């Protein structure tokens, strides 16, 4: 599946990837990163996840991120839909029918939800949605405007370049320009939620500066499958970093308990 040089090939695109082995009777956890994320930005969370759950873990950087192939700018406003319907199935197909759980963060959680509410391949056992976006809120746009200001006035570009190298401008501007496009204000994926049949663990911090608990409420209200909510105190937009132990425990229970 992953070549010796650490890349996946999907529809002619090379995606930076890493695979951590686990027990064969457990599902593979597929991690989908945030809008500025990459393989390296998960830090040690994938290894902790594999150790805690006993599951194999697959991590990859989407095109235009990390060491993956570049992507064209501007990104279409449907970029999350495109990832869910055009790219993710090609990655999952390489698991050759193994059961799997999607673990998405922010944009990655939205991609997971779109995929699960479309025509998922067999073997999808669940979704872990961390700081998900299912519609656009004012707080989301405010947070992304703040990120743009940091990009223009601080060393944010340099810090991101450590993870994205030559993709750094594609990674930031592809995400930031899309969210700040006036046409994106009506972006809404709640219509996919009733079509989801795999159980969902939805996680959000009370101090998330990119979204409110209304996101989790919408998922719980509309999802076609059972939803377990985990709301964390002293936690911002990255629950896996801010409340690592609580998130690991919740995911372990979600994927290992009947």
Structural class designation:
alpha/beta
Overall, the morphology is globular
- What count of structural domains? 1
At CATH level 2, the architecture is 3-Layer(aba) Sandwich
Largest sheet at a glance?
8 strands, mixed
CATH level 1 name: Alpha Beta
N- to C-terminal distance: 29 Å
CATH topology: Rossmann fold
Radius of gyration (CA) equals: 17 Å
* Strand order in the sheet with the most strands: 1-2-4-3-5-6-7-8
Short description:
This protein is α/β, with parallel strands linked by helices and 258 residues long. The chain has 9 helices and 8 strands.
Describe it.
By secondary structure, this protein is an alpha/beta fold. It has a single domain, classed as Alpha/Beta hydrolase fold, catalytic domain (Rossmann fold, 3-Layer(aba) Sandwich), CATH 3.40.50.1820. It has 9 helices and 8 strands. It has an 8-stranded mixed sheet, sandwiched between helices. β5, α3 and β6 form a beta-alpha-beta unit. The chain starts with 6 loop residues before the first strand and ends with a helix.
SSE layout and pairing:
Layout: E1 7-10, E2 13-20, E3 28-32, H1 45-53, E4 57-60, H2 79-93, E5 100-105, H3 107-116, E6 124-130, H4 138-153, H5 156-164, H6 168-180, E7 200-205, H7 214-222, E8 227-232, H8 239-242, H9 244-256
């Amino acid at each position: 599946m992953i070549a010796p040089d650490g890349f996946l090939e999907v529809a002619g695109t090379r995606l930076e990837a890493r695979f951590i082995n686990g027990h064969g009777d457990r599902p593979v956890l597929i991690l989908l990163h945030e809008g500025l994320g990459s393989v390296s930005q998960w830090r040690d969370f994938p290894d902790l996840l594999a150790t805690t759950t006993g599951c194999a873990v697959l991590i990859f950087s989407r095109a235009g991120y990390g060491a993956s192939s570049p992507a064209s700018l501007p990104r279409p406003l449907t970029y999350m839909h495109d990832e869910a319907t055009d790219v993710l199935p090609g990655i999952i197909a390489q698991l050759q029918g193994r059961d799997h759980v999607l673990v998405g963060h922010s944009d990655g959680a939205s991609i997971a939800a779109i995929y699960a509410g479309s025509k998922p391949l067999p073997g999808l056992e669940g979704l872990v949605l961390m700081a998900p976006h299912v519609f656009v809120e004012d707080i989301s746009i405010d947070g992304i405007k703040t990120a743009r200001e940091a990009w223009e006035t601080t060393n944010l570009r340099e810090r991101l370049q450590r993870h994205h190298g030559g993709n750094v401008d594609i990674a930031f501007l592809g995400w930031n320009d899309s969210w700040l496009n006036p046409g994106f204000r009506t972006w809404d994926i709640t219509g996919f939620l009733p079509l989801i049949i795999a159980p969902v663990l939805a996680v959000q911090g009370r101090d998330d500066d990119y979204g409110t608990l209304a996101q989790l409420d919408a998922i719980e209200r509309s999802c076609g499958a059972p939803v377990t909510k985990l709301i964390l105190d002293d936690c911002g937009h990255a629950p896996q970093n801010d409340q690592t132990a609580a998130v690991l425990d919740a995911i372990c229970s979600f994927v290992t308990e009947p």
